[in-house]
User: Which sequence fits this backbone?
């Protein structure tokens, strides 16, 4: 088969990583994989896996983006894919408009993946227009059924995001990496280290994280917090706000902003616990499953996909959303007497995720 995936860009993020991983899986199984996006730093990784990339500005949330429909339809007619799979709303609308005006006898089968709890409106409804609609967790399946009753349940397929548990379980830092890390971060010596992974945005719970650090410090525990994630140019003001908050709480010297890191998994291995404190339900929680696979305790708000993962692999880390006292109590417990998470296996493995997705494609192609 030839499979075309379309998404806004190929930079950091779980959607982007999953796209590249699926493309590599398809190529490895003898299929042809093409990705259409505005480009990004993961394009070389995609192409190294044997997939092709076509650059098209499908990322702008603007009516001007509709001008790309004709170009996209032309590409689809030239490529003649068996599957067209979209993973985001703007590319979804472009893909749907291009697809629906193609010859029904020769156009590709249409697949969409709902990666998040989008605002419920006509704009977001495009994510349910696939001939098969993939939900990345049971929580997302419930969201689709409750908010888009026009979608027949038999069109929905739950395919959790997956990782390679063997790769993670053996992902120990090299001596060279460890030496460089310790030299670069002497402030972590003799501290209990907490990590909050995720881009710099108000939804990821940085305020809760800082409050937790301040409470642990006030209780006499020597702690240091690491914040690992991209800062979009539009979020610079929020980053500055976080620096001011840290100073106000008296933890400015106890927080390190790492920015975007390609070695996040190595960083997780040198942390005592990982936090997942999003203020809104996460659709899945990829960094959570990665941390659990590495044997790290994860403390997080028990809602959405994160709640599902913690219930399955580390119930001791489940916290009632917004309950700061419980968050403090369970974090202290995780730091003082950590339990090892249950081993990660199907359906949360990369192999299971890709195999299930390929099965959906094969079912549609017939």
Assistant:
């Amino acid at each position: 088969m030839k499979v075309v995936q379309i998404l806004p860009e190929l930079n950091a993020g779980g959607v982007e990583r999953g796209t590249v991983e699926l493309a590599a899986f398809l190529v490895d199984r003898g299929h042809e994989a093409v990705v259409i996006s505005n480009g990004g730093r993961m394009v070389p990784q995609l192409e190294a896996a044997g997939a092709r990339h076509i650059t098209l500005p499908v990322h702008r949330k603007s009516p001007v983006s509709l001008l790309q429909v004709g170009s996209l339809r032309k590409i689809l007619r030239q490529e003649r894919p068996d599957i067209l799979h979209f993973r985001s709303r703007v590319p979804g609308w472009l893909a749907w408009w291009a697809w629906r005006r193609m010859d029904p006898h020769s156009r590709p089968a249409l697949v969409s993946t709902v990666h998040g709890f989008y605002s419920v409106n006509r704009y977001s409804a495009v994510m349910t227009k696939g001939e098969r609609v993939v939900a990345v967790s049971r929580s997302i399946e419930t969201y689709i059924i409750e908010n888009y009753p026009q979608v027949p349940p038999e069109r929905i397929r739950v395919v959790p995001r997956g990782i390679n548990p063997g790769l993670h379980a053996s992902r120990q830092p090299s001596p060279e990496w460890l030496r460089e890390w310790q030299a670069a971060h002497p402030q972590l010596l003799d501290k209990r280290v907490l990590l909050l992974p995720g881009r710099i945005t108000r939804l990821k719970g940085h305020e809760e994280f800082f409050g937790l650090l301040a409470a642990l410090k006030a209780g006499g525990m020597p702690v240091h917090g690491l914040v690992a994630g991209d800062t979009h140019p539009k979020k610079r003001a929020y980053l500055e706000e976080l620096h001011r908050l840290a100073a106000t709480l008296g933890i400015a010297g106890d927080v390190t902003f790492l920015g975007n890191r390609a070695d996040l998994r190595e960083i997780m291995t040198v942390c005592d616990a990982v936090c997942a404190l999003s203020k809104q339900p996460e659709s899945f929680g990829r960094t959570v499953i990665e941390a659990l696979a590495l044997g790290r305790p994860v403390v997080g708000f028990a809602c959405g996909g994160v709640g599902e993962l913690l219930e399955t692999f580390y119930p001791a880390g489940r916290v009632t959303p917004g309950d700061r006292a419980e968050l403090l109590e369970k974090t202290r417990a995780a730091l003082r007497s950590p339990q090892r998470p249950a081993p990660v296996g199907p359906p949360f493995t990369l192999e299971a995720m890709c195999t299930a997705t390929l099965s959906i494609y094969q079912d549609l192609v017939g």
The domain at 165-336 is CATH 3.40.50.2000 (Rossmann fold).
